[in-house]
Amino acid sequence: MGEIVLAAKITHVPTMLLSEQPGKLQGCRQQAIDGQREIMRRAREAGADTVIVLDTHWLVNAGYHINSNARFKGCFTSHEFPHFIQNLEYDYRGNPALGDAIAAKATEKGVFTLSHQVETLDLEYGTLVPMHFMEPGDMPIVSIAAWCTVHSLEASRKLGEAITEAVKESDCKVLLLASGSLSHKIWENDLYEANNGTFTISREFNRQVDLRVLELWQNGEIDTFLKMLPEYAQYCCGEGGMHDTAMLFGALGWDKYTGKGELIGEYFPSSGTGQANVIFPID
Fold first, then answer.
1. Deepest of 36, 68, 159, 166, by most Cβ within 10 A of its Cβ?
2. For 239-266, b where at least 16 C-beta lie within 10 A, e where not — what string?
3. What is the pLDDT of residues 33-87, one digit of tens each?
């Protein structure tokens, strides 16, 4: 029987890639990079052999979608930030059977979900950036769209439940990653340079709410957080509508989850947004 052995909410900011290159930003995101490597270290220690990524950079406008190709190989340049992410080569295994099973379980719950094995369906950088640093090696990955424009958080919660059910019926030991920011109000273009935008948050309100959310997670007050999740996503411009987060907690049991989040490294602002790597342990 399979299981989720570790779960985490993680950052995927493009400046992580610039942080490892020569130049004025070299080293600027080292703590975030180290945090993701630590998450993978713990996942391997817990026996993880598969990675599922809930990707808030994969936008979908109808239904839910899973990229469950048998192999992912390519060279990625971001349309959003071509000056940040260029020619990022990748080559990973996939797990079509697990992707298909998740889609079937979700559809049974009334959440229409398609699993795709289409060679030209590429990965988005919400998956590619963390995988670049976590280095899954031979571990297959499954990427699930989590930038959901016309979807309810309740449906995304059910998709999270479907993930857990499908994993349990498999032989996979899964590291589950919700790849997305906390608050996500990117600096207005005209204000970016004047406010040192790469390293600052665009709204103090958002920072304060982010810090409170981290406090709730670390204190194990998940039920309280879930009650505020819809407004948090709305008023603090949660990335992808925070559907990755709804899926994550749906997979963990929603308000029945009794674990406490562990902040790995530091909370940090980036281009106006709030970012963190947080582990949610599995009992």
1. 159
2. bbbbbbbbbbbbbbebeebebebebbbe
3. 999 999 999 999 999 999 999 999 999 999 999 999 999 999 999 999 999 999 9
Question: How many angstroms separate the CA atoms of 2 and 173, rounded?
Answer: 6
DSSP notation for 150-217: T--HHHHHHHHHHHHHHHHTSS-EEEEEEE--SS--PPPHHHHGGGTGGGSBS-HHHHHHHHHHHHHH
Residue type, position 208, single letter: Q
CA 90, 52, 92: angle at the middle one, nearest 5? 20
- Asked whether the beta carbons of 22 and 280 are under 8 A apart, the reply is no
User: What are 228's two structure tokens?
Assistant: 């505020």
Distance of alpha carbon 40 from alpha carbon 46, whole angstroms: 10
What is the tens place of the pLDDT at every residue in 83-108? 999 999 999 999 999 999 999 999 99
Kindly report the pTM of this predicted structure.
Answer: 0.98
Tokens of 105: 């379980």
Distance of CA 193 to the CA centre of its chain: 28
| Residues in Cβ contact with 221 at an 8 Å cutoff, skipping those fewer than 6 apart | none
Give me the residues paired with residue 53 across strands: 143, 177
What is the rounded distance in angstroms from the CA atom of residue 260 to the CA atom of residue 59?
30
243-252 and 153-168 are packed helices; what angle lies between their axes, rounded to 10 degrees?
40
As a whole number of angstroms, the distance between CA 277 and CA 235 comes to 21
b/e sequence 25-34, b meaning 16+ C-beta within 10 Å: beebbeebbe
Q: Nearest CA to 145 among 116, 107, 108?
A: 116
CA 243-230-258 angle, 5° bins: 75
